[in-house]
Design goal:
This protein is of the alpha+beta class. It is built from 4 helices and 9 strands; from the N terminus they run αααβββαββββββ. The N terminus is likely disordered. The chain binds FE2/S2 (inorganic) cluster.
């Protein structure tokens, strides 16, 4: 009797662990689905008055230097990169006269290590690659748009290809040392 009760308890723990793993997998799956469904979501954008109120809170503390995350704000992907010292130095060493859309790197971040940009190519609206390890980032180490070849640097500025402008920096603020509110 006692042994049976212990067995049941062990099975319960296993089930709890399984539930947790399933839940975790489900959350990751939902985030992936949200990003891959971006064109569909965009076509269902809510009314302007609803959009005006929407903000996205992001905890940056798990993101290590060199890593990137993508969050959704107002139905759009937002790229957040925790830039390394080398990436910051490269972005700040650029001669502005060589840029199509000349904006100093210093004017594109609140804190130099955190770059926050809308992940939509200003050319025709594709989502550039470069967020995940192994994806092409172009010659300047930022992002590469596979649709027509636009390349962006580690400040999200257009360096090559047809995009007329840099990746857009959305309105955001730091609510804590490693937390931001977009919108
Ligand atoms: S949509 Fe990105 S280069 Fe055309």
């Amino acid at each position: 009797m006692t042994a049976k009760a212990q067995d049941t308890g062990a099975a319960g723990d296993d089930e709890t662990r399984r539930d947790f793993l399933l839940l975790t997998t489900g959350v990751v799956g939902a985030a992936g689905a949200a990003l891959s469904a971006w064109p569909f979501i965009d076509s269902m954008n809510p009314a302007a008055d609803v959009l005006a109120l929407s903000t996205t809170e992001v905890d940056l503390s798990p993101v290590e230097a060199g890593q990137s995350i993508t969050v959704v704000w107002r139905g759009k992907p937002v790229f957040i990169r925790h830039r390394s010292e080398q990436e910051i130095t490269a972005a700040r060493a650029v001669d502005l006269s060589t840029l199509r859309d000349p904006v100093p790197d210093e004017d594109r971040e609140i804190k130099p290590q955190w770059l926050v940009v809308v992940g939509i190519c200003p050319h025709l609206g594709c989502i550039p690659l470069g967020q995940k390890p192994g994806q092409p980032r172009g010659e300047w180490g930022g992002w590469f748009c596979p649709c027509h070849g636009s390349q962006f640097d580690t400040s999200g500025r257009i360096r090559k290809g047809p995009s007329p402008t840099n990746l857009v920096v959305p309105p955001y603020q730091f609510t804590e040392d490693t937390s931001i509110r977009i919108g």
